[in-house]
Design a protein that fits this description.
Radius of gyration of chain B: 18 Å
Number of domains of chain A: 2
Largest interface: A-B, 27 and 34 residues
Shape of chain B: globular
Strand content of chain A: under 5%
Order of helices and strands of chain A: HHHHHHHHHHHH
CATH class of chain B: Alpha Beta
Mean pLDDT of chain A: 91
Helix content of chain B: 25-40%
Number of strands of chain A: 0
CATH class of the largest domain in chain A: Mainly Alpha
CATH architecture of chain B: 3-Layer(aba) Sandwich
Low-confidence stretches of chain A: none
Oligomer: heterodimer
Low-confidence stretches of chain B: none
Largest sheet of chain A: none
CATH architecture of the largest domain in chain A: Orthogonal Bundle
CATH superfamily of the largest domain in chain A: MetI-like
CATH superfamily of chain B: P-loop containing nucleotide triphosphate hydrolases
CATH topology of chain B: Rossmann fold
Number of domains of chain B: 1
């Protein structure tokens, strides 16, 4: 009797897990298939190699190169800036503050809060900063806003990699006469390189995919920006504007833009995997 | 104080409100193996870590008393703490190789001390790997990650890495507890050779290991030093009841 009950329970959870997995996989496939179905027929070389020509938004010639390059500039710049801020912070929490548990938990809590704030709020905050400092809508303003938005994500992702480093490795490094900074940048950094590189690329993915934070800050333009002070187009906003158009050809181009965006994110994810495997070499498995 | 390397006087250590080390007075003789033994949780490891001030890591730790190394009080010293730590090589309960190649594991300590010439590094790396009889096993794979060595080899690598910094003291915290019997023997044999030039402090709860290696013994129980003295005296003719029953294996 008891065994029967146990088997029933096992069966129930197996079915439950199967359905949960299926829902996720099917949802992902549907998103990709629907984008490809609607976007691939319109996707052409012209679309990814040209900036919008006159009348592009009425369905005439041109492409979204402005948005592709703009997005890469923006996400690349923001990721670079976020790494410069985030890496030292993540190392500091895990090497210098490792024993100040309350302080570290406080910092983690703040980062989690920041992570939870919707990106539109970052956009509004960035906009407020801009008007305070008198900066106009520009690539620079967009990069700063997106940096604020992805720093918490990057630091927490790095933190997850760093916090599993055993205490013994810290003690070992210190007892060899290293300072904390040497321990952080020569030992912890190497040990966690796979996790750290994944964190950077994860943040890049978030940066390139976000529309709300750059809506007021980066602006939109038909040209490829040539300096930080010019406004820039981005893929998420290109999708947004094209999809809001009443003209069917333009709406279709939104899906083609989505294909490009998803492709970039896919490439970045694959790169993340490859890099994380490559840097695995010296990692010690404790 | 001739022949005494480390002299501990009236050492008290608290973690928060917990009194971990109580009025410790102990002498550790130069170029001998001093074994700190006692049941688990008696403060052996904490005592050892307070010697190279790894206890500083814990913000709740509060230390008072004196620890004199070569007549310099390391608890009060104005010297850079990294200089004190370089005087002591640490061998932990399990090997912690650095996440880099075998070669760089040894060269790391030399490099952070400012020795960067490849010729010198090469010679030093070989010297210290030979000293722990690891050279023949790894000479063709110096560029390989240290993590690929067996646990026993890793522990010998860690010993060599510690020696490369040029310490005078070796602190070993149950260094064979993760190792197989043959690797343990290798480490023990190393200690017997190394004691000619180094002062070795060995924490162990393995009584037989203590008997095999010790020249000098410190027996601890619940944060206090119960008995200390030359190994022959403590093992053959213990003065305290507690020591007698511990040696008979009545508690661990």
């Amino acid at each position: 009797m008891k065994l029967k009950l146990k088997n029933g329970e096992e069966g129930f959870f197996r079915v439950l897990m199967f359905f949960s997995t299926t829902i996720i996989v099917v949802a992902l496939l549907m998103i990709i298939i629907s984008i490809l179905y609607k976007g691939l027929p319109v996707l052409s070389w012209a679309m990814i190699s040209q900036v919008p020509a006159g009348g592009f938004y009425f369905g005439r010639e041109g492409g979204i190169l402005n948005a592709i390059v703009g997005s890469l500039y923006l996400a690349g710049g923001a990721t670079l800036l976020a790494t410069i801020i985030g890496l030292p912070l993540a190392l500091y929490i895990n090497v210098h503050l490792v024993c100040h548990r309350r302080l570290v938990n406080g910092i983690r809590f703040v980062l989690d809060l920041l992570w939870g704030i919707p990106s539109i709020v970052y956009g509004a905050f960035g906009f407020a900063l801009m008007s305070y400092f008198g900066i106009r809508v520009s690539l620079l303003a967009g990069i700063i806003t997106v940096t604020l938005f992805i720093v918490p994500i990057m630091v927490r992702a790095m933190d997850e990699a760093l916090k599993v480093v055993p205490r013994g490795l810290l003690e070992t490094s210190l007892s060899l006469g290293s300072t904390r900074a040497e321990t952080a940048y020569r030992v912890f950094f190497r040990q966690c390189l796979p996790g750290l590189s994944t964190a950077v690329l994860l943040s890049f993915g978030r940066a390139i995919g976000d529309a709300a934070s750059i809506l007021f800050t980066a602006g939109f333009t038909d040209y490829i920006p040539t300096s930080l002070s010019q406004p820039t187009a981005t893929l998420p906003l290109a999708i947004f504007f094209q999809l809001s158009s009443p003209i069917p050809q333009v709406q279709q181009r939104a899906y083609a833009s989505a294909v490009v965006l998803v492709f970039i994110i896919l490439v970045v994810s694959i790169l993340a995997r490859i890099m994380s495997n490559r840097y695995q070499k010296h990692k010690i498995n404790f | 104080m001739d022949g005494i390397k480390i002299s501990i006087e009236n050492l008290n250590l608290y973690f928060g409100k917990q009194h971990v080390l109580k009025n410790i007075d102990a002498q550790i003789p130069t170029n001998k193996i001093t074994v700190i033994m006692g049941p688990s949780g008696c403060g052996k490891t904490t005592l050892m870590k307070s010697l190279n001030r790894l206890t500083d890591l814990n913000p709740e730790a509060h230390v008072s008393g004196t620890i004199r190394i070569d007549n310099e009080d390391i608890l009060q010293t104005k010297d850079d703490i990294t200089l004190i730590r370089k005087k002591m090589g640490l061998l932990a309960q399990r090997p912690y190789p650095l996440p880099m190649s075998i070669y760089n594991n040894i060269a790391y300590g030399l490099r952070i001390s400012g020795r960067r010439k490849k010729k010198i590094l090469d010679r030093r790396v070989e010297h210290y790997l030979r000293q722990v009889s690891l050279w023949d096993e790894v000479k063709d794979r110096l560029k390989e990650p240290a993590g690929r060595l067996s646990i026993g080899q890793q522990q010998r690598l860690c010993l060599a890495r510690g020696l490369a910094v040029g310490p005078e003291i070796i602190l070993a915290d149950e260094p064979t507890s993760a190792l197989d019997p043959i690797s343990s023997q290798a480490i023990e044999a190393q200690f017997n050779i190394l004691k000619k030039n180094y002062t070795i402090v060995l924490v162990t709860h393995i009584l037989r290991q203590a008997r095999r290696l010790a020249d000098h013994v410190i027996f601890m129980y619940l944060g206090e030093v119960i008995e200390q003295g030359p190994a022959t005296q403590v093992f053959e003719n213990p003065q305290q009841e507690m020591t007698k029953s511990y040696l008979k294996g009545m508690f661990y």
